[in-house]
Amino acid sequence: xxxxxxxxxxxxxxxxxxxxxxxxxxxxxxxxxxxxxxxxxxxxxxxxxxxxxxxxxxxxxxxxxxxxxxxxxxxxxxxxxxxxx
Length: 85
Description:
By secondary structure, this protein is α+β, with helices and mostly antiparallel strands. The chain has helices spanning 16-27, 47-52, 70-84; strands at 2-7, 32-37, 40-43, 60-66. Strands 1-4-2-3 form a 4-stranded antiparallel β-sheet, covered by helices on one side. α1 (16-27) runs antiparallel to α3 (70-84). The model has no long low-confidence stretch (mean pLDDT 93).
């Protein structure tokens, strides 16, 4: 299992359009990918659950990736967060 933590820096947090692109990125990998925020753990491949978390600027999240392409997926997602959220 790979994991990383990130503090959201984007002004709008994880808003609808950003969440959609994030979910698309996660769906391109076979691994199980989850997002942990505010004591909740949700599937990062499900748009509705990601948008319902209500993650705002300054919030701290943890991403956990487990599966056959976990290293590649974790690296790509961490880069996605840094560049977009």
